[in-house]
Amino acid sequence: MKKILKTFSLYCLSFLFLAAMNACQNDDVASIDEQEQEQESNSESLTAVISDGLHSNWSEGDPIMLVHNGQTIIAEAQESGSSSILSGTIEGTFTDDNPLFGIYPADNRVSSDDESLTVTIPATQTGNENGYDEKSVVAVARTTSNSLNFQTVCGGIKLNFQMSGVTGIELESVDGYALSGTVGIKWDEQGKPTVDKIENAHSIITFNAPNESGFIPGKDYYISTLPCDVYGGYRLSIYKDGLVAHYFSVHQTIERTDYITPDDLVESELEFDDPDAPLVEEERPELDATTTALLRQYLQNQTEDNKLALLNQMGLRYDKVVARKKAKLRELEREAKTPDLVAEMQGIVDEMVENRDIRLEQQFLRLIDPRNDENPKDVWMVLRGASAPNAYIGYAPVTNAEYAAFEKGFMYDAGKDNYPVVNITIAEATAYCDWLTAQDNAHVYRLPTDEEWILGAGHMPKDVTMNSGRVETGLTPVDAYSQTTGACGGIDFWGNCWEWTSSTDANGQYIIKGGSWDSERDDCRSEKSDVVRTGTKGYANVGFRVVRTDASNAR
Fold first, then answer.
1. Which of 96, 109, 284, 421 is deepest in the core (most CB within 10 A)?
2. Average pLDDT score over the chain
3. What's the CATH fold of domain 373-553?
4. Cα 299 from Cα 304, distance rounded (Å)
């Protein structure tokens, strides 16, 4: 019995010893688990991943700003590559209402709140060995975890010059849209950063070469901008050897992550000039090789596809002219010394944009009109594009001498034979046309419509010298100002005297065209069709010009 009790006691002691040991081990494991959990909750590493943008890989030591709940720290990338562990930690729990933000480059951050960041896109940039300015390629991240997915805020323009000596570029949105500035960033439903608001906006960005020798020929360079609609046009001013050339492009849009290229920039066609010279607007540019080829293609095979291709190319050329005028308008606005010129230029731009399709159709009709002048030595000019198949328009407004041949009792001052006849009513002008018709069995003569007058005149060159704005004390001979030659080859289309048309407004008033010696320049523009007069009255500054059509096609 004693032996049994002794054995039982040994078993109990062993059991108690083992139980105690197991309890100690459990306590140790629990302690370790608690320590690991505490360590994990307070010091889990942050990871930064680059998903898009020019800055596609981290370099060890890249500074990244982290922002959370009022805390701001600068962490550094610990590895090279598209993903990297970050140095440093930031305390707190990251939630949808209180997320963790990341900004690269670190010093581009301006402010932040629980929903958005505010960062800067610089208006002055320098192309370094990577081809871009690191401070301009802003990338941001928003997360509720310990992984930050960095996405770029920017897009921009990609350039590659083959010529040497280019030391700087100036990029401008000719519509005045923001390309850089202080930008509020929010995230859309797909988690992409979007521009919320812009302050200190700049529509011009200056992009400098890294040294005096200029940009390396054949190397890609990137000007970073905010996402921007530049469909209406942008200007590139290219500085080389102390001179500057201006290039304009249209029909493009800068999206986030997208760097567009000016595909039709031909370096050999750039015209360099003194940087202090005013921006000269291009007027009536000659047909380029592409337009000429498309015109020839259409004339040989007049299909709708060929017509559309020609019209698209014409539209591209037209919109580039408008872009130049917008750039001139922006220049005048910056000078802030000529409010009258600003208003005038704004009116021109607005009219060109509003009447774009009409102008293109008129130009198209002119281009495809196959007629040659039947008699180049007479006073009738081919009215290309007119709906009347064989329409011609007078070389000049009807003169005193010409009208006196019709109206025998008409009197005018000596020495003014070649001055435009004025003080003529619509009925009297129509009677003169009927008189011409009565003498010519093959043709009918009449006043031009508003559209026909515009076809004959074409677009008024911006810097044309003419008798307007009271530069003269009154009328001058019809051939006094040679620059007033219209698209048809006729003269005296702008200034000197207004000209009657047969078109009327809703109130029955007759539209007059071309302006006069006492008109503002803006009123002389060909497309201006809101100036009217009463047809039963004669005016000291209103004359007329005549259209001639074939008798069988008269309207």
1. 421
2. 88
3. paralog of FGE (formylglycine-generating enzyme) (3.90.1580)
4. 12
Structure tokens at 38: 């505490």
Are 333 and 245 in contact, with CB atoms under 8 Å apart?
A: no
Residue found by looking up tokens 């190319």 in the block = 313
* C-alpha dihedral (378, 383, 387, 389), degrees to nearest 10: 40
Please give the Cα distance from 113 to 72 (Å, whole number).
12
3-state secondary structure of 260: strand
> pLDDT tens digits, residue range 420-473?
999 999 999 999 999 999 999 999 999 999 999 999 999 888 789 999 999 999
Task: List 67's β-bridge partners, or say none.
Answer: 72, 101
d(CA 175, CA 437): 50
d(CA 72, CA 93): 15
CA separation for the pair 238, 426 (Å, rounded): 54
Q: Which two tokens stand for residue 108?
A: 């581009």
Separation of alpha carbons 494 and 526, rounded Å: 8
Q: And the tokens for 91?
A: 């305390």
Question: How far apart (Å, rounded) are the C-alpha atoms in residues 18 and 393?
Answer: 120
CA angle at 332 for the pair 327 and 336, rounded to the nearest 5°: 145
Q: Identify the H or E element spanning 341.
A: helix 339-354
Q: How far apart are CA 127 and CA 220, in angstroms?
A: 10
Q: Which residues of 140-150 are buried (b: 16+ CB within 10 A; e: fewer)?
A: bbbbeeeebbb
CA distance 346 to 352: 10
What letter represents residue 406's amino acid?
Answer: F
Tokens at 385, concatenated: 């594009």
Q: Show the CA angle centred on residue 268, arms to residues 263 and 274, nearest 5°.
A: 105
251 band by pLDDT with thresholds 50, 70 and 90: very high
Instruction: Tell me the whole-structure pTM to 2 decimals.
Output: 0.78
The pair of three-digit structure tokens given for residue 388, joined into one six-digit string = 């009347």
Q: Which residues of 177-197 are buried (b: 16+ CB within 10 A; e: fewer)?
A: bbbbbebbbebeeeeebebee
223 Cβ contact partners less than 8 Å away, ≥ 6 residues apart = 125, 132, 136, 156, 157, 159, 169, 171, 205, 207
Close Cβ partners of 301 (under 8 Å, ≥ 6 residues apart): none
CA distances for 192 relative to 71, 115, 252, 445, angstroms: 24, 13, 22, 67
323 Cβ contact list (under 8 Å, min separation 6)? 174, 232, 233, 234, 235, 248, 249, 250
Q: How far apart are CA 169 and CA 182, in angstroms?
A: 22
84-88, 235-239, 365-369 — which one is most confidently predicted on average? 235-239
- Write out pLDDT tens, residues 101-133: 999 999 888 887 777 899 999 999 999 999 999
